[in-house]
Amino acid sequence: MKERLFTPGPVEIPERVRKVLGEQIIHHRTEEFKRSFLEVRELFKRLLEEDSENFVFFASSGTGAMESAILNFFEQGEKVLVINGGKFGERWLHLAKHWGLEPIEYKVEWGKSADPEEVKKLLDKHTDCRGVLLQISETSTGAYHPTKEIGELCRDREVLLVADAITALGVYRIVPSQWGIDVLVGGSQKALLLPPGLSVLWFSQRAERRLKDRAFYFSIKKELKKQMEGQTAWTPAISLILALKESLSMLLEEGMERVENRHRLISKATLRAVEVLGLKPFAEKPSISVSSVFSPMAEDIRKLLLKYGVRVAGGQDGLKGKIFRISHMGVDPKDGLMLVGMLEVALKRLGLFDGLGEGVRAYSEVLTEGGLW
Fold first, then answer.
1. What is the pLDDT of residues 39-98, one digit of tens each?
2. Cβ atoms of 114 and 125 closer than 8 Å
3. Which is deepest, 40, 113, 176, 187, by most CB within 10 Å?
4. CA 265 to mean position of chain CA atoms
């Protein structure tokens, strides 16, 4: 039985992208690679609707770009406000502490979203704060943090907004200058529709004025100079960069407004179906990238779905066994319908819901009403 991925990274890779990944590798110190890499850079600028050349790719997971953000824009001893509402908010906290920053922790209950009013109070209290670190989409809980509203607060102060967009880039139509984002990080194995191993970091002109050179491998200054010429300071993830040209082309062909609308409707339809089936959405303000579902039998549901060839993610840390997570990244609406159908079967087998077809009907109604079907 072929296993279908509905995990929030890695996601299923489209055939067009797989075709590029299956081709013979080329050498990176060639004109061929240089041309392709410069084309990728132009496509990425179109994705963000920004003309700036201020972005670099690293051969790393998204955490590498997160670490680069800490090392390149902040000095040891500087204060940063960390919005900690999940496993990846914790990662910002650990990175900040590791590199000698002074993090102010704004602890958000897992499943909840940050309150901009609370952010304002903390920034007013800590006037020497130099940055706010957050997740746009907190992958571990399925919660969305109100990034634009927090961006407005940072814009009025000498505070950089550093946004982990690892499960938001390629889902939401993100225009950093409109959102008030100063540093944006992304990873390849999410909505950029690639295998793991490539990360990206974009930064604003305001952030550029704060650029340090504390890093070695993750040095933005070293990488930017080379990448603007179509090369890299160190060996690049060649195949992933070539495949990124295809995945970015796919996103731009659809258009990011339509991409976001597709994810929004699939998310809404999935959560509507979940509620009809007697389960409870976990996130108070859900991300449209990933839906988290609460159930005391979450792990039984996840394991039974896996037996049927459908892989969803479980909860992490304190949420292990309490939630399962369904990714909408790289998902065709028809695949989402299949997932809901298999969820109905699993719930019936476990004695948690008596009946079939109600979740599928609810899912289909949302997509029909939304004009996706």
1. 999 999 999 999 999 999 999 999 999 999 999 999 999 999 999 999 999 999 999 999
2. no
3. 187
4. 18
